[in-house]
Amino acid sequence: MIINDEPIINVGIVKHSIIEFELKGSFSFQNNLIEQGHYKALINNNSIELPWTKGESTICLQANSQNATFVIKNVQIGIGFHWQQNQDQEFEGSLTLKLHNGEIWAINNIALESYLKSVISSEMSAMNNPTLLQVHAIISRSWLLSQISKQKNTSINNEHARENIIEGRTIKQHIKWYDREDHDIFDVCADDHCQRYQGISKIISENALEAVNATRGKVLMFENEICDTRYSKCCGGISENFENVWENKPKTYLTAISDSKNDLKKLFSNIEEFIVSKPQAYCNTSNTEVLKQVLVDFDQKTNDFFRWETVYSQKELSALIKRKSGIDFGNIIDLKALKRGISGRITKLLVKGDKNEIVVGKELAIRKWLSETHLYSSAFVIEKHYKNNTLLPYSFKLKGAGWGHGVGLCQIGAAVMAIEGFSVDEILYHYFNRSNINVLY
Prior knowledge:
Blueprint lengths: L7 E9 L2 E6 L2 E3 L2 E3 L2 E7 L4 E3 L2 E4 L1 E6 L5 E9 L7 E8 L1 E7 L2 E9 H12 L6 H20 L6 E3 L4 E4 L2 E10 L9 E2 L16 H9 L3 E5 L2 E2 L4 E2 L31 H4 L3 H6 L11 H7 L12 E7 H12 L6 E9 L5 E8 L3 E5 L1 H7 L10 E6 L9 E7 L7 E2 H9 L4 H8 L4 E4 L2
Helix pairs in contact: 1-2, 1-3, 2-3, 2-10, 6-9
């Protein structure tokens, strides 16, 4: 597969009823120059209103030079995660404002390689190990082009109608997986849901520039298709199969691997024993210099990613699940893992209350139900604690492994491999079985 020209990527930055932005440098609209300064885009009669135009539902402000930039106010990042916050962010390239479903989307139109320079700096430290930066440049480019090449399907997938027979009872199930929702008017979003992208608000170092330039046009491929190169912060020792997290279509290059010199899948036949243990693995590290490379800014507040614990009282858990699921389970009698992936991540969890019981999955839906933001992962074991011989659990302790969905590249594991001297090719082929590196343009 050959792409002759570097693609232009459309990145959804933020949506609001009012978009506040600042133009720096030379921009034009319909071949007319626009003055630099601060602007507010408003909705008026189902169109976008700005000082120089009315009646348009799509407005493209074309950057006339490489030095032209724009600033978007109040960009929300880390949506749904514990680091969620608002920032003013600056971007290169052109700005498209598009009215969609009653809100205005601010969309950055930017060359792919320029986009990647920001992604590499936003996802991890731009002062990172050069090998790791090149690895990340290749997988970020591959993932992006893979998503663009796909035919866009319904992105939130449901299996509500199915039922489970458990202990002679018919139980409804609530199974979802999330992939590129609301992305029908641009290629990718700017948040962690796709790839963290903060324009030039995040300082782009010479190391990041060199990594992107050194890998220009390089992607991972499998059987003449660009690989869907997923990645997460920490796999917890064993990565997960693609189909256990997203749609039920296995991918040969996204199968579970041991993030270790040892075969952890054989070492622990009991997956619950694996989760509560702390085996040797690349991503089992407390090396602060390594972690600073991957856990940038607000991520560095997290230090218990390899193995972690969360405790909920009965009152806390029942209220949390009701709030996050929208279903009143009453008191929670039981949480029970019905199905796990190879890494131990739960893909079907029975939530049983004295008013309701439902099977929930896949892994992200489970994490959403069991945390105010996102539980670190769905690879956990459940301990129920009782008080005074009552039948109702007094509290629930979740002992877990890893941070994220665990599919594909483990960022912390890859960082350790780079420090230990593994090459770009060795790291990529470790995490993505039977893939090959190709140059597209």
